[in-house]
């Protein structure tokens, strides 16, 4: 027991350090499906949070944001008690969600190790190898501490797999780690965790449908199938009732987000608006990205699990067979969906790490005197460290750094206004415009201050449009990139407002004549790719490049290539 507690504490500290070192952008869902609604819940509708179309369509459950809203409110209260200044409070609020996610990530690591103990035995080398694989995984370092619903889904899936009473259904005792949780209570809690994962991400049902099918087939017992179905119905309906009530509080109307999710993504096929991938994507890109250096061991472990499943030698082998079958079925099912992302199969990672553990432990057996294998181990670990460093400290860092820069500029302006260093004609709050593909940066979770006036290009999908209308549909970002100069002329105030050739009085008069359009902000933020197009236009204005942040060495979207460039308007 003490060893288990010590290992969890060590994992928690490790993931807290992990959360601190991740300073890059991955995908916008990390912010707009979690932190923005959480910010609004915590600080109110006037807090400046960006609530995207998904929330207006009741596509997402509020349960996930409520978790981070509680973290925000708790941290805000603590800062108030400690009388922290605005700068410290802003940093503390930025760290609060990552602390929650670090706990979830540490739990995932810990549960992966404990599940491996059920499969291989608590003292087996493969069990220790499973813990080592999850701790050393570049994907885990990169993604587990991010506030994706997929990350929480994976932690919940691991919890459900650990709590599930395998020996109740698979009936083989083998003397390995005893499954003490064979009571119905354990079954109900496991299925409640699975139901929660499904409510967050409805596609999680594929994993549990596969596992249930294997259990029913291998047990060949109508009674056990009935027990499983009854428990699933009770746990599922309880979770549905509780979360539907939470969503009623958030949406002010009854909403079942999983149903809405399936309708919009399957019936209206809106997911394809955000991209389509080849049918082999998960085999050629998804699994390699998820597993990196553990890929060959996972593939071998997957094969061994399927082969060993034909026997009934041990409960562990049957669990492995169930895991292997669920993995194959889930990847095949996801491959049939047009819109693919590697994080969609993230919940399989604990399973894959467990399957990889046995071949890994055998290959690096300390009793094997093969001198080449330690070299392979060191090279593999070095590769993992380099990958983890690059994705957490280098790749797509600029879009995060620019948000910190802008927040600090707001702090500087506020301080200057407080001591009378700003002219009365200059507002004490900054304004920012992002001429980038939509959701290229975080938003209020990183701005923090509601006083910052900001806007960005949008990309609302073609909800409720016919197939013919979708063929010609362009979102705001598409329209902008088709002709950036024309878009600025049509949507922004007259360029004379920002011209070097007019005094303050003339500019003010011109602004009054153009009130129906967007004002030119104090800061314009764009990717380097756009500078050849806009530089000639901005050269005739009071905008000058003032900061530049390295963002990435490459990107599959040409619009996001190059540094993040900031243009500041001279006063």
Features:
5 strands, glycosyltransferase, globular, membrane, five-stranded mixed sheet, alpha-1,2-mannosyltransferase activity, 61% helix, 2 domains, mainly alpha, endoplasmic reticulum, 571 residues, transferase
What is the topological layout?
Blueprint: H1 2-21, H2 29-43, H3 53-56, H4 63-82, H5 86-120, H6 125-135, H7 138-143, H8 149-163, H9 166-170, H10 184-200, H11 205-219, H12 222-251, H13 257-267, H14 281-291, H15 295-308, H16 315-335, H17 349-363, H18 372-393, H19 398-418, E1 431-435, H20 444-447, E2 453-456, H21 467-471, H22 476-482, H23 484-491, H24 504-513, E3 523-527, H25 531-538, E4 543-549, E5 564-569
Parallel strand pairs: 1-2, 1-3
Antiparallel strand pairs: 3-5, 4-5
Helix pairs in contact: 1-5, 2-4, 4-5, 5-6, 5-8, 5-17, 6-17, 8-10, 10-12, 11-12, 11-16, 15-16, 15-17, 22-23
């Amino acid at each position: 027991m003490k060893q288990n507690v010590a290992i969890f504490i060590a994992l928690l500290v490790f993931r807290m350090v992990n959360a601190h070192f991740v300073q890059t952008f991955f995908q916008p869902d990390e912010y707009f499906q979690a932190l923005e609604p959480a910010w609004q819940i915590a600080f109110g509708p006037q807090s400046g949070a960006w609530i995207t179309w998904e929330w207006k369509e009741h596509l997402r459950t509020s349960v996930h944001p409520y978790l981070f809203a509680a973290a925000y409110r708790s941290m805000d209260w603590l800062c108030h008690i400690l009388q922290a200044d605005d700068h410290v409070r802003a940093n503390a609020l930025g760290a609060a969600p990552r602390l929650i996610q670090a706990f979830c990530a540490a739990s995932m690591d810990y549960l992966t190790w404990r599940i491996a103990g059920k499969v291989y035995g608590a003292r087996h080398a493969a069990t220790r190898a499973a813990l080592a694989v999850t701790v050393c995984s570049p994907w885990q370092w990169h993604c587990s501490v991010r506030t994706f619903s997929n990350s929480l889904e994976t932690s919940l899936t691991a919890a459900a797999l650990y709590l599930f009473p395998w020996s109740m259904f698979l009936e083989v005792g083998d003397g390995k780690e005893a499954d003490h949780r064979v009571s119905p209570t354990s079954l109900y809690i496991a299925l409640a965790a699975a139901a929660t994962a499904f409510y967050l991400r409805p596609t999680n049902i594929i994993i549990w449908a596969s596992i249930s099918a294997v259990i029913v087939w291998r047990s060949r017992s109508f009674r056990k199938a009935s027990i499983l179905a009854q428990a699933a119905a009770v746990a599922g309906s309880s979770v549905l009732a509780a979360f539907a009530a939470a969503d009623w509080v958030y949406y002010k109307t009854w909403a079942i987000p999983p149903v809405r999710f399936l309708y919009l993504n399957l019936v209206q096929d809106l997911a394809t608006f955000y991209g389509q991938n080849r049918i082999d994507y998960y085999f050629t890109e998804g699994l390699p990205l998820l597993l990196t250096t553990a890929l060959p061991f996972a593939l071998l472990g997957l094969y061994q699990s399927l082969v060993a499943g034909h026997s009934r030698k041990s409960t562990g082998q049957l669990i492995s067979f169930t895991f292997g079958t669920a993995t194959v079925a889930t990847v095949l099912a996801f491959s049939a969906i047009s819109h693919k992302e590697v994080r969609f199969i993230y919940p399989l990672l604990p399973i894959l790490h467990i399957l990889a553990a046995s071949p890994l432990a055998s290959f690096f057996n300390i009793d094997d005197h093969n001198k080449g294998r330690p070299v392979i181990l060191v090279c593999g670990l070095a590769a993992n460290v380099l990958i983890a460093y690059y994705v957490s400290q280098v790749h797509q860092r600029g879009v995060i750094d620019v948000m910190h820069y802008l927040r600090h500029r707001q702090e500087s302006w506020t301080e200057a206004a407080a001591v009378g260093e700003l002219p009365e004609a200059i507002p004490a709050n900054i304004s920012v415009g992002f001429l980038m593909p939509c959701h290229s940066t975080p938003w209020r979770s990183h701005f923090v201050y509601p006083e910052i006036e900001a806007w960005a290009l949008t990309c609302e999908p073609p909800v409720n449009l016919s197939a013919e209308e979708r063929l010609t549909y362009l979102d705001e970002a598409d329209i902008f990139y088709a002709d950036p100069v024309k878009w600025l002329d049509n949507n922004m105030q007259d360029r004379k407002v920002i011209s070097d050739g007019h005094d303050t009085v003339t500019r003010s008069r011109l602004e009054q004549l153009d009130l129906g359009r967007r004002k030119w902000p104090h800061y314009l933020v764009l990717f380097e790719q756009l500078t050849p197009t806009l530089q000639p236009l901005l050269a005739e204005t009071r905008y000058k490049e003032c900061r530049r942040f390295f963002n990435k060495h490459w990107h599959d979207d040409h619009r996001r290539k190059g540094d993040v460039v900031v243009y500041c308007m001279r006063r």
